[in-house]
Amino acid sequence: MKVMNMVQAINDAMDIMLNEDRGVVVYGEDVGVEGGVFRVTEGLQLKYGADRVFDSPLAESGIAGTALGMAVAGMKPIIEMQFDGFVFPAMNQIISHIARFRNRTRGKFSAPVVIRIPYGGGINALEHHSESPEAYFGHTPGLKVVIPSTPYDAKGLLIAAIEDPDPVVYLEPKRIYRAIKQEVPEEKFSIPIGKARVLNTGEHITVIAYGAMIREVQKAMVKAKEKGISVELIDLRTIWPIDRDTIRESVQKTGRVLIVTEAPQSYGPAAELMSIVNEEAFLSLEAPPTRLTGFDTVIPLPLGEKHYMLSPERIFYEIEKLIKY
Amino acid sequence: MFNAKTLEKYKPLDNKMYQVMDNEGKVILKDWHPNLSPEQVKQAYQDLLFERTVDNMAVSYQRQGRMFTYPPNLGQEAIHIAAGMVIKEEDWFVPAFRELGAWLAKGVQLWEIFLYFKGSEDGSRFVGANRMLPVSVPIASQLLHAVGLAYAMKYKKEASVAFGFVGDGGTSEGDFHEALNFAAVWDVPVVFVVQNNQFAISVPLKMQTRSQNLAVKGIAYDVPSILVDGNDFFAMHDVMSFARDFVLSNNRPLLIEAKTYRKGAHTTSDDPTRYRTKAEEEDWEQRDPAKRLQQYLIKNKLWDPAVEEELIKSYKQKIDAEFEKAENYHAYPIEDVFGYLYKEMPMELKRQLNNYQNYLNNGGAK
How does pLDDT run across B174-196, given as a tens digit for each residue? Predict the structure, then answer.
């Protein structure tokens, strides 16, 4: 075991896989000499050489499109989109090709690219540096989408993503890149994609969240505990495919559910989760399934961001409202 | 023969186009000799006729309601036949969608092509073709795939080239420019082939670009570029052969603009009379690639045009048989809608498939 933050854990996962498989390459903007703008790829070029860890020209569609070619030829590219708001030029390659190549060729070819994207708000950044685009990927047939909430999960999920035979969008909650430190095994391990994790068992209400929101919910839970409210917290871990079983079992037990996501509301992941709750646990419900999400607005620049970001207080407010329903 | 010296001589910035034959099939290039045997040239002409016959048949199948939308190749066959002779089994062929003769040379079965345009992904399995990518509909996006494949070939130290095809309209897309730039910066063996057939559906080239030709677009990226008469089989074959050797031995990309004319419609859903004139069509008819190669063969006493009628008749029988194979292909199983998105079908897709099957099992209509 070694104490790591999320940046170190992600770096460690890539290090292990670069070492294990010569087909693995890491590239994107500034990931080489610079080690990435968040230093996630620090030291990897020095260790594995500039033909395996390298800077590409500054063009996201180019990064994604070339990765498809490499993957079709049997390599395992891990590409970095420097920020969430910069992935949009690559969407044609991701949605129209990477996600569909296996289906289009009836399994003859596939494009198991790993697309790493730092995402989410709360870091006082410029416009286009604080987006939560997970719904676009979750809505795209052919992709898997994972989001870790701890250094341990970050390492295990990234190794699973790299070993996965299909393309995986791996979203990194950059707000907690360095906020959490925990003991992480130094050896290789993986966490199955498609499985949620119950972080806290409780009786009165289920809260479903992922990524940076987990920590905020945990803060709200301190207050809930003081008020005698027992919260069951589910860390979704995988945005698609969603682990219905864990959601069903929990909501059937508690009868109440709050879904917390930073992404805008309409057509978002919370809407999908609420549908699943309705389909799987309708007769157990004692209150309407409720979502607390970002607004259907552009995430404001830093001076206005606090109005958008979900505070533990707001989360607790919604929990209490549901309990009193 | 096209060589490094020729590359120096035919500068796209001078708008110089490489040409071997005139419109009557007469060799106009001084000291030029074919690097193909008479038998190979004859075979190339027959392959060209075959491609043209397939096209005519395909359009008529579509008209009979036996096939959906189909993009004819008519007028561009010399490019395809030349490319097909040069692209080797170990090379990656990254098509757009209008390269029929080259597809067949790569080992794609004609019935697969028909099956695809009849509306089945099974037509993209390409059971007998190695390193052949499927149709790419989003324009120019496939060129980046070719660059990634070329990177992989260089990385794995394989002597293999990626050939990426695009049309004139595609040169306006960002991915075209990103592909040229990535390939140049990464020093990878990829040949970009622009089939400039003068129209992007209805939009003429002059609405597409102010560049004097499309080959100049490679120059700023430091990609050696050649403008070639795409209706001149020999010019096309010379340039394609040179390109393959050049990118392999220099580990760098090369761009070819093959100037041609789409004699047919963009697809069977298109009506070219809306956007081009009879006079223009007649002008290009003078440069028809089949006619030029045929005239060359006749001049060199290699061909008797009297045999063509019988030849085409035999082609038609063969093509009909291939089409029947596609028509008799098995029905589209429900499982195939779900079964190829992921290596292993995720629970969520199994659930959706199961719901649909339950509906059908309870007498539901499709």
Answer: 999 999 999 999 999 999 999 99
**A204: annotated active-site residue:** no
Amino acid at B348: E
Which pLDDT score, from 0 to 100, does residue B366 have? 82
Q: Are the C-beta atoms of B231 and B18 separated by less than 8 Å?
A: no
- CATH number assigned to the domain comprising residue A98: 3.40.50.970
pLDDT in tens, A281-319: 999 999 999 999 999 999 999 999 999 999 999 999 999
Question: Do the beta carbons of residue A17 and residue A162 sit within 8 Å?
Answer: yes
Q: Which residues of B touch A (CB under 8 A)?
A: 92, 94, 121-122, 124-126, 133-134, 136-138, 141, 143-153, 155-156, 162, 174-175, 178-179, 181-182, 185, 336, 340-344, 346-349, 351
> What is the distance between the alpha carbons of residues B356 and B366, in angstroms, rounded to a whole number?
9
CB pair distance less than 8 Å for B133 and A25: no
CA distance A72 to chain B (A): 7
Asked whether residue A90 falls in the same domain as residue A210, the answer is no
- DSSP per position, B301-323: T---GGGHHHHHHHHHHHHHHHH
Q: Cβ of B121 and A166 within 8 Å?
A: no
The reply to whether A206 touches chain B by the CB within 8 Å rule is no
pLDDT of residue B165: 98
Q: Of the candidates A70, A74, A93, which has its C-beta nearest B151's C-beta?
A: A70
Asked if B246 contacts B254 with a C-beta cutoff of 8 angstroms, the reply is yes
Residue A189, chain B, CB below 8 Å: the answer is: no
Last residue of a domain, one of A125, A149, A184: A184
Question: A97, A128, A129, A307: which is the annotated catalytic residue?
Answer: A129
Say how many domains are in chain B.
2
Q: Does A194 contact B347 at a Cβ distance shorter than 8 Å?
A: yes
**ipTM of the modeled complex:** 0.97
- Does any domain span residue A189? no
Spatial separation of the C-alpha atoms in residues B138 and A143, rounded to whole Å: 19
Residue B364 is predicted with a pLDDT of: 86
Residue B132 clears pLDDT 90, i.e. is over it = yes
Tokens 């969407």 label which residue? Answer: A91
Tell me how far CA of residue B160 lies from CA of B63, B191, B248, in angstroms.
40, 11, 7
pLDDT tens, residue by residue, B42-93: 999 999 999 999 999 999 999 999 999 999 999 999 999 999 999 999 999 9
